[in-house]
């Protein structure tokens, strides 16, 4: 990542090394990963990409978030890819039967129109020391700088530390040191930081003691108002909201006054609070504070940003509109998915709903709309456990830093009355996606052996207009009708690049047995593909 993406022109031939360990050190077994001429980031023009690799290798690339294979398009210097819209680019160097690690870059393509303000919204930092976080946050701020070289504000939305009533309040000073060092390093001297209180933040006193006063300018209750380039930002304390009459009164009075101002028509009121509110994002999972939802319901101009759940922002259910707009922040430490599914791990299928992926939102407020870009700080493929031990804090370099975790959400506040504004919402339950995934491979299922000789069902991943969320996998013994595998398996959609295949272990198969597999691809809204089937064995 570079410091100021907008000064690099499309014709630039400077080559940027991919952020992967060992990628620039060719070995006898693994080619070096490709280098790219224009790093990922936000641009106000089309971008022409040039790749460079060591002699004797061929670069193949994809533009859809999948992992390049030997069938993917070949890079030619005479016909370089032109990036004219938001795109994830992934490249792999091939040399004979060897290939490099894949490297991915995210590009946000915008016009020259200048927003009123730019915000980075993040949550659930969970910092507990310098050792595991200094290098990580250097990488994260490099990514921030590649998108917004000088953001107007960072909304740091709760759970900065990981206190569980065990006296870790002083860790807030470590977070402050980490952020202040990186703000200074990146020249973000005018960037405001606005903090909300989370359930792992020890106490309001610990927050006040840990940061500059202007980062948490509450007057005693953990809630306050700030102004960023003429836009109102209201921070609520979700740890007390339901029971705090004073806070509820303050929020409703301020929202009423702001939205009644004729000069503020069409502009959003940004509200941040740690916990999601009831019946909104991700179908209300891990939400609280029903009175907050009640109080916001009279103000469709409100855009409420929340953390706490760690629920990923790849999923389009992380934005919700009914009476107002709610948006998940994701998490800067690790993300979660909805429960009830399994993941493919090195130990086989596991009841896993976490990934060591870090994500944040990049919000641009314009006169007539708010654009919310979803960006990965790190989304390399790793299990959340290593050797059976929790290992969420993967360290840089990251081959996926700055990639996009989904299409940009655009919120428009169109209408002269509250009801007209609501009628024009686009992320409502009634307007949700109805397009089912599709298997595009001629043979979506195949039987293979793993490295230990075990039987594996390989699924060639389906495609979807948003994302494939999971697969319903059912494998039965044809002779007995007994179920061998019955599972809902995540599609690995939270990694970048997304693996092209999923390998489902089939335990207990016997020599000479005959088995029937049936697999259905399902998106986040339950839209399901026709089943793919395979009979294998004798």
**CATH homologous superfamily placement of the largest domain:** Metallo-dependent phosphatases
How far is the N terminus from the C terminus?
53 Å
Helix content: 10-25%
Low-confidence stretches: 1-14, 19-27
Largest sheet: 6 strands, mixed
How many separate helices? 6
Globally, the shape reads globular
Mean pLDDT: 94
Name of the CATH class of the largest domain: Alpha Beta
In the CATH hierarchy, the architecture of the largest domain is 4-Layer Sandwich
In short:
By secondary structure, the chain is mainly beta. It contains 6 helices and 35 strands. It is globular and about 75 Å long.
Can you offer a commentary on this structure?
With 538 residues, this protein is mainly beta. The chain folds into three domains: 5-109, Immunoglobulin-like (Sandwich); 117-423, Purple Acid Phosphatase, chain A, domain 2 (4-Layer Sandwich); 445-537, Sandwich (Immunoglobulin-like), CATH 2.60.40. Helix content is 12%, strand content 31%. The chain is built from six helices and 35 strands. Strands 2, 5, 6, 8, 9 and 10 form a six-stranded mixed beta sheet that branches. The longest helix has 16 residues, at 245-260. The protein is globular. The termini are far apart. The model is unreliable at 1-14 and 19-27 (pLDDT under 50).
């Amino acid at each position: 990542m570079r410091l100021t993406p907008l000064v690099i022109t499309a014709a630039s031939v400077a080559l940027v090394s991919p952020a992967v360990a060992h990628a620039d050190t060719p070995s006898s077994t693994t080619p070096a990963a490709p280098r790219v001429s224009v790093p990922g980031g936000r641009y106000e023009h089309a971008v022409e990409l040039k790749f460079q690799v060591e002699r004797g290798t061929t670069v193949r690339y994809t533009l859809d978030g999948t992992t390049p294979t030997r069938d993917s398009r070949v890079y030619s210097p005479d016909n370089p890819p032109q990036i004219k819209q938001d795109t994830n680019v992934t490249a792999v160097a091939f040399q004979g039967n060897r290939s490099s690690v894949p490297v991915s870059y995210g590009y946000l393509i915008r016009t020259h129109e200048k927003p009123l303000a730019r915000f980075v919204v993040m949550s659930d930092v969970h910092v507990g020391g310098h050792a595991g976080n200094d290098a990580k946050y250097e990488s994260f701020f490099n990514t921030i700088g590649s998108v917004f070289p000088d953001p107007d504000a960072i909304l740091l939305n709760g759970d900065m530390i990981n206190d569980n009533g065990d006296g870790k309040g002083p860790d807030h000073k470590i977070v402050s040191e980490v952020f202040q060092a990186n703000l200074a390093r990146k020249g973000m001297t005018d960037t405001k930081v606005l903090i909300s209180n989370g359930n792992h933040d020890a106490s309001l006193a610990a927050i006040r003691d840990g940061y500059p006063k202007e980062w948490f300018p509450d007057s005693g209750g953990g809630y306050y108002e700030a102004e960023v380039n003429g836009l109102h930002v209201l921070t609520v304390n979700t740890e007390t909201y339901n029971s705090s009459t004073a806070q509820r009164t303050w929020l409703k009075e301020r929202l009423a006054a702001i939205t009644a101002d004729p000069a503020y028509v069409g502009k959003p009121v940004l509200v941040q609070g740690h916990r999601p509110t009831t019946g909104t994002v991700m179908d209300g999972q891990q939400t609280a504070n029903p009175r907050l939802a009640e109080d916001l319901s009279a103000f469709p101009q409100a855009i409420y940003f929340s953390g706490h759940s760690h629920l990923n922002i790849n999923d389009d259910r992380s934005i919700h509109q009914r009476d107002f707009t709610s948006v998940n922040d994701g998490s800067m430490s690790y993300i979660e998915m909805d429960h009830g599914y399994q993941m493919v791990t090195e130990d086989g299928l596991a009841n896993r709903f976490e990934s060591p992926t870090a994500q944040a939102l990049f919000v641009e407020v314009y006169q007539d709309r708010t654009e919310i870009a979803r960006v990965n700080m790190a989304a390399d493929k790793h299990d959340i456990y290593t050797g059976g031990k929790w290992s969420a804090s993967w360290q840089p370099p990251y081959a996926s830093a700055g990639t996009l975790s989904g299409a940009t959400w655009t919120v428009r506040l169109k209408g002269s009355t509250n009801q007209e504004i609501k009628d024009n919402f686009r992320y409502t339950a009634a307007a949700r996606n109805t397009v089912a995934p599709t298997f595009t491979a001629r043979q979506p299922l195949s039987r293979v052996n793993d490295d230990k000789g075990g039987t594996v069902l390989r699924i060639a991943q389906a495609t979807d207009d948003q994302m494939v969320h999971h697969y319903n996998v059912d494998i039965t013994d044809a002779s007995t009708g007994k179920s061998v595998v019955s599972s809902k398996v995540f599609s690995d959609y939270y990694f970048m690049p997304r693996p092209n295949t999923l390998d489902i272990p089939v335990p207990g198969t016997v020599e000479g047995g005959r088995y029937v597999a049936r697999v259905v691809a399902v998106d986040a809204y339950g839209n399901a593909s026709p089943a793919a089937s395979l009979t294998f064995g004798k």
